[in-house]
Amino acid sequence: LKRKNIDIALLQETHLLKADMGRFADRFFHTIAFSSAGTKTKGVAIVVRRSLPVKIATSWADESGRVAIAQIEVHSRKIALISLYAPDDFRKDFYNLITTKMRELTDYSFIVGADFNAVWDPVSDRSSATSSGGQSMATNALKSWANNLDYLFASPQLFQPVNTATLLPIALSDHKGVFCSYTKQFVSGLKEFLNFNVGSVEDPSILWDAIKGFIRSNAILFSSNARKSRSLHLQNLEREFTRLESILQSNFTEQVALQHTIIKKEINNILKQQSEFQIQRTRQKYYFHGAR
């Protein structure tokens, strides 16, 4: 992890007892969430570089070494880090558990690292296209899990700045590590702007005015895009809320009722945030300015 300059690692098959998880930490990294079984089997963990400016809201883990979740805030983004290790044999209760837990995290974007012990496409992902009954059920459950969560929790804005996504070579185990890196768009743009303009004028105040203009224009663009994205997201949520409400009136089911409740909670959170922002803006405009 240190050699690859990893900031966040989602680990599966740690094979450590609960009492031994502290041994994984050192002066560079610490474990913010983990799950261990009663024996040295299974095990998942979420490891973060100590120097990374992360605020940890809360964490959760099951008792069987299969699921670990950490809710964090990093660079003003609320992200739920999720490390999963699926059973070798198909178990419906595993997918029911992770679906339920993830639906509770309505105001977080997701990053999931997992060993699902299942493939997405048997034709492309297996040397033999034939699958056993259990393998086919695991594939169907994996697709169903992803599709059921997608309309609520897909967060493309979280992954726009991804630079690389690489499968690391198998050297120490029978698993390939997945390595992703990203940079903040504003930081990379500012560096490029400085590299191009530093030394172009003799008066540093002219350069400073140009830098302020660059920062201002990027801030306005970011704010505009974020506002449009939030508005579109709210419209989609309200449309889905109305659809589910109509279904419940004619045919009540627990699953639809749960989705209905979760979407209602997310709509309320968005409207609450908008109201708080408007109140703060009003205070700044009519009180802070007047005080001067």
Automatic annotation (TrEMBL):
Coiled-coil parts of chain: none
One family name in Pfam for this protein: Exo_endo_phos
Domain of life: Eukaryota
Signal sequence annotation: none
Domain Endonuclease/exonuclease/phosphatase: residue ranges: 1-175
GO terms for MF: catalytic activity
Protein name (Swiss-Prot/TrEMBL): Endonuclease/exonuclease/phosphatase domain-containing protein
